[in-house]
Design brief:
It is built from 14 helices and 21 strands. By secondary structure, the protein is of the alpha/beta class. It folds into 3 domains: 212 residues, FAD/NAD(P)-binding domain (3-Layer(bba) Sandwich); 115 residues, 3-Layer(bba) Sandwich (FAD/NAD(P)-binding domain), CATH 3.50.50; 106 residues, FAD/NAD-linked reductase, C-terminal dimerisation domain (Enolase-like, domain 1, 2-Layer Sandwich). The longest helix has 26 residues.
Length: 473
Amino acid sequence: MLFNKTIKTDFDLFVLGGGSAAFAAAIRAAELGARVGVAEEGVIGGTCVNRGCVPSKNLLYAAERYHDYRRNGFAGLPQGKEAANFAEVIAQKDDLVEGLRKAKYWDILEAFPQIKFLPHRAAFVSPNEVSVGDQKLTAEHFIIATGASAARLPVPGMERTPHLTYKEALDLKQLPKSLVVIGGGPIGLELGQVYARFGSKVTILEALPRIAPLEDEDISETLKTYLTEEGIQILTAVKVTRVEPVEGGVRVEALVDGKSTEFFAERLLVATGLRPNTRDLGLDKAGVKHDERGAIVVDDQLRTSAKNIWAAGDVTGQMMLVTVSAMEGGIAAENALANARKRINLMHVPHAIFTSPQVASIGLRERDAGAGGRKVLTAKLPFEHVPKAAAIRDTRGLLKLVVDARNYQVLGAHLVSDEAADLIHIGALAVQHGLTVGDLLRTTFVYPTLAEAFKIAALSFKKDVTKLSCCAT
């Protein structure tokens, strides 16, 4: 055992929640020899397996295949006309989710008998005790990993207007003829494109000046162009003022360029962000502080304001990604049980939006560097200059590198392209290990590949890449 047990308790570590962060914490604690309790009143597996990564990406790729079937860009290939069976697509997604829930969660519990799973909600009654179902349990250490849920939109009429969140939008058995999406972030963009590609008329309303507002400006604007070309109506700087049910669907009132505008659709999807799940956890009884959004306040080692309680994943309100949640869960367990004092550097974590084309990013954006007073140089490479993109008949794409103006160290990489979520790992390695433009130039890339875009972008700092032959350096 790698930690000191000093107090007689029911568990060495008790985890509130049953998703990615919670299970990462429980598994690491079990590996350290701890007796672990895990409490989750909802469906085991959390957002990623049940309502996020797995089902949404399954539907995104199904929609992409259907889109290619109808509108491929190759001469001589037929373009399909048959309508998709949307109910069957959803049913296959459900089978996938059920299978992964069993393999990645229920089977894990069988592999670690020292983890006791309790299918109930847990709430603190003191810093060392939780109420779980009809019993009270004690532990030496706790980790709060209860995740986040769809944020409520405080707009008149919302309470009495039927609407979808990302959860319900993944389970519709019938394709709506039209859909209004409030929110132009990752969830709204991904699900909006899914329904548009299956045949719904989609309108996306974003309150901020651009969609994907956390991305580099060039990437956001490029993505907007591509989605608009597919027929998705995108309006930004929109203030939704009222929603209400009407015959056949919903009506949305909004201010667009200062003018009152109405939108009608069969269904309404509200995708305006996530809110940490901290209500009714008894945080005040445990001495755990949270901010105005409900996010638990933690230090750089994920410890809360209570010395024996840590928090991990979306409940902290930081970077809400399953990769971060899983890393934080394991780190929190090690810090709690073994005083490992581990930290996570969120600047080294890549993220992606799985639209088509995809968006992915790592490190500093140009505006971040400028705001910090750091002098940077940028290279922007349209994918029309990437031979592989021309070969696959899809030259949609833009790669933007942000480098230090003094030594050409790569500080950030941002792209919108086919398979951007895979390509970004080149940028992640560059940022994490302090690579330079010269390091990219000295790397031999397979030809032709989309990954070669990184080398061509690096070349653009010193050459006109429009005047290069294939493979030239």
